[in-house]
Amino acid sequence: MRLSKTDKARDALGAAGKSGAVDLRDRQILILADGKRTRAELIAMLGAERVPSIDRLVREGFLASADSAPVIVPIAPASVVAPMPASVPTAKRRSLAAAKMYLIDMLQLQRTPTSAELRLAIQSTSDPVLLLDRLLEALDYLVTSTTPSYGERVSARFAEVVPEDALSRLPTLAA
Length: 175
Known about the structure:
Blueprint: E1 2-5, H1 7-14, H2 24-32, E2 34-38, H3 39-46, H4 51-59, E3 63-65, H5 96-110, H6 113-123, H7 128-145, H8 148-161
Antiparallel strand pairs: 1-2, 1-3
Helix pairs in contact: 5-6, 5-7, 6-7, 7-8
């Protein structure tokens, strides 16, 4: 099922920073729900831990099915949903969306024509495989065009947010 923003979601996105607006994580979901991506694609981009947020946004009327069938999200009784024990460490949030947002921000700080082109290329890509290629190209640009210490910090942070299956491609940038 493809998910798209409702008018309520557009209003909430337009009210960024005002009371009653959605938080940053919900905002990320709403931005990515463009009517072209399926629920499964959003989960793949954002991580499985975001499923409850996606379901809540559907229940609260921020997201709707872009397909003809209505979205039906089952509501689990509170007794079924057990909180995570405090002793279990929370996993770092790794997703292509987080990596994309991080590199877009880093490229925006550079204010060069090349960084603007890379930023636009990243923003206009929805295919996950091509997106990862463009993210790695942008990371390579940032590493080679900035000071070594800055490049190392950007690479380290990128390695923290990119999905684990993409980590094997990162050492190629060291050359």
